[in-house]
Specification:
- Helix content is 50%, strand content 9%.
- The protein is built from 14 helices and eight strands.
- The protein has helices at residues 24-35, 62-74, 85-93, 103-106, 109-119, 136-148, 175-184, 194-198, 204-213, 240-249, 260-301, 308-324, 329-351, 353-357, and strands spanning 13-17, 41-43, 78-81, 98-101, 126-129, 154-158, 190-193, 218-222.
- Strand 6 (154-158), helix 7 (175-184) and strand 7 form a beta-alpha-beta unit.
- The longest helix is centred in the C-terminal third of the chain and has 42 residues, at 260-301.
- The protein is elongated, with a radius of gyration of 25 Å.
- Bound molecules: phosphoenolpyruvate and manganese (II) ion (MN).
Length: 369
């Protein structure tokens, strides 16, 4: 897929505005205050997909007039969320500059296709939020549907993923998924919606810095003149002034530098890393040779391949050792899981060559507690 930029080359791209358009005064007041903070795009939800009924579901079409007025008065382009073809037609009629597809819509290929069909023949930019569930293909699929409809000015918005259980985030970021998207589509702009990731204003700044460190092209931030009084998402909204302070305090990181000192120090570290990686591979190969030997011994004595107790003990010991070296338990578990699967494959090839030749999921075999 080939994409064209939605925004100009200025970085970071700043998108801000209230979660929902509530009153004409609130929309205009927020837009004017944000103009002074140098934003590139003003956002406000008109149709609000709420998780549960009874919450404020958006002001509807009349809000489009307020957005249009905000654009005329401030000169800042405006964006709102669309979830069906009717929303698209209304936005096109009112000259909304950019559309966004929300997380609860990206999840549904029927809805995304309906929106793509309604947009065919236009060249309006569209921002595509990740689906609520961490399904990379569904996110890419939504981008593809728009691309197939002839749109090229498409950008992605990372807003985190629903999860059940305790987390400091409202929607856990799972940064790797956004990084994968950046790597697969290097020319596409990827924006970080820190407000919906955090769900609370006290961790916005640290999350924005993280997004900058990961080279996101910009931020989407919910702002409101009286955040605590907001009709939706009150806990995560901040005032336009606070938004300006937060953005001003962020460390900008360059992608690279041609400073000779930088290049020399990087080269030193990288060549050492390359050596270590080679060593890791040959050590793993040595480990696997021992695994093959164990496979032969087990075959000889007719002993089962899978030894859950041994694996659990090994994992626990290495996790404890890892912790002493600032390696997280999760990392050690993932690393060992990969090594262990390869070991089981090896032993299976020795003990049960016929079954081992058939494609199957060895990971289903052993107990992951
Ligand atoms: C929003 O941006 O206000 C919104 C509803 O976002 P999401 O689709 O990410 O939940
Ligand atoms: Mn919101």
């Amino acid at each position: 897929m080939n994409f064209q930029p939605v925004f100009d080359l200025k970085r970071p791209i700043l998108i801000a505005g209230p979660c929902s358009a509530e009153t004409e005064e609130q929309v205009l007041q927020t837009a004017h205050a944000l103009k002074h903070q140098g934003i590139d795009l003003f956002r406000a939800g008109i149709w609000k997909p709420r998780t549960r009924p009874g919450a404020f579901e958006g002001i509807g079409t009349q809000g489009l007039k307020w957005l249009k007025r905000a654009k005329i008065e401030t000169g800042i382009p405006v964006t709102t969320e669309v979830a069906n073809a009717q929303h698209v037609y209304e936005c096109l009629k009112f000259g909304i500059d950019v559309l966004w597809i929300g997380a609860r819509t990206t999840v549904n290929p029927f809805s995304v296709q309906e929106i793509a069909d309604a947009l065919e023949g236009t060249d309006i930019p569209v921002l595509v939020k990740n689906p609520v569930n961490p399904d990379y293909k569904l996110w890419v699929g939504a981008l593809e549907r728009l691309h197939k409809a002839g749109l090229r000015r498409i950008a992605a918005v990372h807003r985190g993923f629903s999860s059940y259980g305790d987390s400091k985030y409202r929607n856990v970021p799972r940064w790797q998924m956004a990084i994968d998207l950046m790597q697969e589509f290097p020319e596409m702009e990827v924006i970080c919606d820190i407000s919906h990731i955090c769900g609370r204003r006290d961790i916005l700044a640290e999350t924005a810095q993280k997004a900058f460190d990961l080279n996101f092209d910009g931020l989407m931030v919910e702002t409101h003149p009286n955040p605590d009084q907001a009709w939706s998402d009150a806990a995560q909204q901040i005032t336009p002034a606070r938004f300006g302070e937060m953005v001003g305090a962020l460390q900008r990181r360059a992608i690279t530098s041609d400073d000779p000192d930088f290049l020399a120090r990087m080269e030193n570290c990288r060549s050492e890393i390359d050596d270590i990686d080679e060593e890791i591979i040959s050590m793993i190969a040595r480990r696997m040779n021992l695994v093959s030997e164990i496979g032969a011994i087990k075959k000889d004595k007719n002993i089962a391949v899978l030894q859950p107790e041994r694996f659990r003990a090994l994992r626990e010991a290495l996790q404890r050792r890892g912790e002493k070296n600032e390696l997280s338990r999760e990392f050690i578990a993932m690393f060992l899981e990969a090594v262990h699967q390869e070991s089981i494959n090896r032993q299976e090839r020795i003990l049960n060559p016929v079954a081992a030749a058939a494609p199957k999921q060895i990971s289903d075999l052993w107990i992951n507690d």
